[in-house]
Amino acid sequence: MSKIKDYLEKVAKVTDETLERVLPSESIYPESIHKLMRYSTFAGGKRIRPSLVLATHEACGGVFNNENALLTIAAIEMLHTFSLIHDDLPCMDDDDFRRGKPTAHKAFTEALAVLGGDALCIEAFEILSRTGRVDMIQEIAKSLGTKGMIAGQVVDIESEGKPVTLETLQYIHDNKTAALIRACVRCGALLAGVSDEALAKLTSYGNSIGLAFQVVDDILDEESTTEQLGKTVGSDREKGKATYPSIVGMAESKKIARDLINQAWKDIEFLGDKGAILHELAEYIITRIN
Amino acid sequence: MSKIKDYLEKVAKVTDETLERVLPSESIYPESIHKLMRYSTFAGGKRIRPSLVLATHEACGGVFNNENALLTIAAIEMLHTFSLIHDDLPCMDDDDFRRGKPTAHKAFTEALAVLGGDALCIEAFEILSRTGRVDMIQEIAKSLGTKGMIAGQVVDIESEGKPVTLETLQYIHDNKTAALIRACVRCGALLAGVSDEALAKLTSYGNSIGLAFQVVDDILDEESTTEQLGKTVGSDREKGKATYPSIVGMAESKKIARDLINQAWKDIEFLGDKGAILHELAEYIITRIN
Q1: pTM surpassing 0.80?
Q2: Is the model's pLDDT at B232 over the cut of 80?
Q3: Mutate to test the interface with A, among B71, B129, B164 (most CBs of A within 10 A)
Q4: With bands split at pLDDT 50, 70 and 90, how would you rate the model's confidence at A228?
């Protein structure tokens, strides 16, 4: 797995460099909001979404350092960060820690956390527009709105403390987590200019690893230590949130995750050796629990 | 003034028709968020921003019913609504009423108000992308981010209960209110394809009426009845917010508003008769206090 770790490190570096370049400096007035935006964006995420964009882009013949790909990964990390800041708010999941650091509304104020999230969202679209590619804006906006991430978040919140069917849990995970991950893969493919057939297979790959990612997150929420996770263990259970282990059991959850990764591997067989990094990225998602 | 009232009604009708067409139906799952988005978007705004887009577009030779102009006005109203929903939140201005109706977090929940605002913002950019015009996305995103509306909102909140200079108040108003209004005028001009010289004059017009709009709002906050205003009179003062009347006095505030409108009229003299509606729109902003 050292190859994938090297790749993730390489992507993290270029993601941070691009974010450094496109995010407003902390010294620009009003400083507080720019500090919050950078505090949350540089909070130590693994940059898995940028890795999926760039790995797909390269697998489909794109160049690693392509400027439009770099703008896209910066925008996607800003949008992902925006969603985390708002998710953590007292009126939402009410989390005090994220990746071992105080959440934005704890480190700053609640008002600034709302506005900082808003600003990251707005400015991400400004950065995406610099690519000149409205198809990318469509792709990403659709994955985030009420046919994607927001829909998943709404149903997640409205289901708290209620009995939840596996079907509803799948809906939540598919929208809240998988939609943006699928969009990352599709953006990498669109930037490289792939055929409709290849795009369909890569979309299926994105679906599978996106759902696997959230199933693994559910498993980690039960099994890890607080230190490993950077947030309170079992916090989903305490909030009355349904998870895969709570509905189908731990063993079946691990089997589902494994099956999803196997499906993802099948989807990218057509890439041959060029799909090596995408193959390893799928495995990396699972190894977080092995 | 009946001519301008007819124009505003005509724009309100076409704005509502376009919003009806682009906003997700209330019957789409998850229904709650779609209900909130429509509740707040159709809360009875005067559609002044769409009027500025369409009037500028027409004054510069564009066609009233141009599809890209319609998509733009719908997106702008969604973005304006997103900003109002988040402004009204308990951690922000903590307002219970807006245009005489309970605010979104009062009529629904705080979590849904955060997410509904987010969704309106995200989906507005999706709708803008349908125009294929990345320059419009740039224009609008810049007017809303931390070089525009959000910056004004941050300084507004951080200045509450503190002595505020006229310079700071101008910064707040210029960013929180004037930036988007200026962007509306510029978008109308960009859609019609004007010269750089005309764009500069129209930008100045947008600046002047944008600032006048907020000065008039400050005056109305002091002078109107609660019924006329749809929110509590003097609520800015109670919150310890600086206003033009609180800093320069009521008479001077009215003079400033009048001078700004006179400046706006000068800026659009080059349009001749074609600028009649823009001329009347500027006057309409002032007549709200006369």
Answers
A1: yes
A2: no
A3: B129
A4: low
Q: Does the distance separating the beta carbons of A28 and B154 come in below 8 Å?
A: no
Mutate which: B72, B154, B157, B190, vs A, most A CBs within 10 A? B154
Please report the pLDDT score of residue A12 as a whole number: 97
Q: Is the pLDDT of residue B226 over 70?
A: no
CB contact under 8 A, A137 and B151: no
Mean pLDDT of A171-196: 97
In angstroms, rounded to a whole number, what is the distance separating the alpha carbons of residues B92 and B237?
A: 15
CATH code assigned to A2-287: 1.10.600.10
| Chain A / chain B CB contacts < 8 angstroms | 135
Among B30, B119, B132, select the one facing A155 at the smallest CB separation.
B30
For the record, the structure tokens of B181 come out as 């209004």
Instruction: Sketch the domain layout of chain A as residue ranges.
Output: 2-287
Give the nearest partner residue to B121 out of A24, A121, A157, using CB atoms: A121
Give me the pLDDT at residue A289, please: 57
